[in-house]
């Protein structure tokens, strides 16, 4: 007979039956524990029960795991954003430093080349920096940071590490302006280094071109020939590179040959230049050379000797 819902009889009541039931239950428990300990008979059952209960654990922990994942994602995103910003700033700073180092290295290279030119020309030179440059087709000029107060004079030749750039055309107290060899109003006497042919190179208004017209048709000139200063006119000392012939043809009349040359100087890239100062020759005759031998007696002693009287015998 089933117990009613209001029946509150205990599982183990008083009496011999209840005591026997308790003993049976305890014996069964002990037997199960011994069997499980000795033979691991209930391990498979526990695994099945664990697999059945595991989804309940995950479902119960799902809200906490979701909240933790959201907090971690937000924190990671913020940290990654900050780290990305720091890395971007560090990259920009490093790039700026590298660019500065490259610029300094290039400047050192140019200065080294200028110093080598200074040691090789055998003339007095003065270093100057470009302040401004004008490469207009009708006006090719550069401005330098030295002037009359630094000893600059009109007509001084200006060159870089590769060749002649121009000459000083205007001098102010602390600045000077130089006309480039490519200016349309400029001409420079040159010599073909290979053959010795003398001619004149004219500015074309373009920083990468010089025109050499009125060349005799029989002249030996060809692309690749080097043009150097001839020294005629007294403005440019002889022997400095000026340009290289790039093409040779005939003029419109057909009576003369005409050539085009590329300037040797880096007119668009040079930042430092040299101003030539010819070494002045000594003024007056050379000093007398001592012929050697015993020194002459002093004038006073010679006079006394000449005026002395010989005593009578």
Automatic annotation (TrEMBL):
Classification via Pfam families: MreC (PF04085)
Low complexity bias locations: 301-313
Residue ranges of domain Rod shape-determining protein MreC beta-barrel core in the record: 136-276
Region (Disordered): 278-313
Entry-linked InterPro entries: Cell/Rod_1, Cell/Rod_MreC_2, MreC, MreC_beta-barrel_core
Coiled coil stretches, renumbered: 70-97
Task performed by this protein: Involved in formation and maintenance of cell shape.
Family assignment from sequence similarity: Belongs to the MreC family.
Protein name: Cell shape-determining protein MreC
């Amino acid at each position: 007979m089933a117990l009613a819902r209001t029946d509150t009889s205990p599982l183990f009541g008083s009496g011999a039956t209840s005591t026997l039931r308790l003993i049976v239950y305890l014996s069964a428990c002990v037997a199960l524990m011994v069997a499980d300990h000795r033979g691991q008979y209930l391990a498979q059952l526990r695994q099945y029960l664990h697999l059945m209960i595991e989804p309940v654990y995950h479902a119960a922990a799902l809200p906490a795991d979701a909240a933790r994942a959201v907090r971690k994602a937000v924190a990671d995103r913020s940290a990654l954003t900050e780290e990305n910003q720091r890395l971007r700033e560090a990259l920009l700073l490093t790039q700026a430093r590298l660019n500065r180092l490259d610029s300094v290295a290039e400047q050192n290279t140019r200065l080294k080349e200028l110093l080598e030119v200074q040691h090789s020309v055998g003339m007095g030179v003065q270093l100057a920096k470009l302040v401004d440059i004008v490469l207009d087709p009708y006006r090719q000029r550069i401005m330098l940071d030295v002037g009359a107060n630094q000893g600059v004079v009109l007509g001084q030749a200006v060159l870089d590490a590769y060749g002649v750039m121009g000459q000083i055309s205007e001098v102010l107290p602390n600045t000077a302006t130089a006309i480039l060899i490519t200016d349309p109003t400029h001409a420079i006497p040159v010599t073909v280094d290979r053959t010795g042919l003398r001619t004149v190179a004219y500015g074309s208004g373009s920083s990468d071109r010089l025109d050499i017209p009125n060349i005799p048709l029989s002249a030996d000139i060809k692309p690749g020939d080097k043009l150097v200063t001839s020294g005629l006119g007294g403005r440019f000392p002889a022997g400095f590179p000026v340009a290289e012939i790039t093409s040779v043809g005939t003029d419109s009349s057909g009576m003369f040959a005409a050539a085009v040359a590329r300037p040797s100087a880096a007119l668009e890239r040079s930042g430092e230049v040299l101003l030539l100062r010819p070494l002045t020759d000594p003024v007056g005759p050379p000093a007398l050379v001592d012929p050697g031998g015993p020194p002459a007696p002093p004038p006073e002693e010679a006079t006394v000797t000449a005026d002395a009287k010989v005593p009578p015998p």
